[in-house]
Amino acid sequence: MQTIPPATELIQQLVAQLRPHVMPATVLVGIHTGGVWVAESLHAALGLTTPLASIDVSFHRDDHHLGNGLRAGGRISHLPEDVEGAHLILVDDVLYTGRTIRAALNELFDYGRPARVDLAVLVDRGGRELPIAATWCAYTLSKPLPASQSFNLQRDANGQLSFSLGEK
Amino acid sequence: MNNPQLNSHGELIHLLSLDGLPRDILHGILDRAEPFTAVAEREVKKVPLLRGKSVFNLFFENSTRTRTTFEIAAKRLSADVINLNINTSSAAKGESLLDTVDNLAAMQADMFVVRHASSGAPYLIARHLAATQRSHIHVVNAGDGRHAHPTQGLLDMYTIRHYKGDFTRLSVAVVGDILHSRVARSQLHALATLGVPDIRLVGPKTLLPTAAIQMIDNAPLRVCHDLADGLRGVDVVMMLRLQNERMQGALLPSPQEYYKSYGLTADKLALAKPDAIVMHPGPMNRGIEIDSAVADGKQAVILPQVTFGIAVRMAVMSMLAGGSQ
Question: What is the CATH classification number for the domain harbouring A100?
Answer without folding.
Answer: 3.40.50.2020
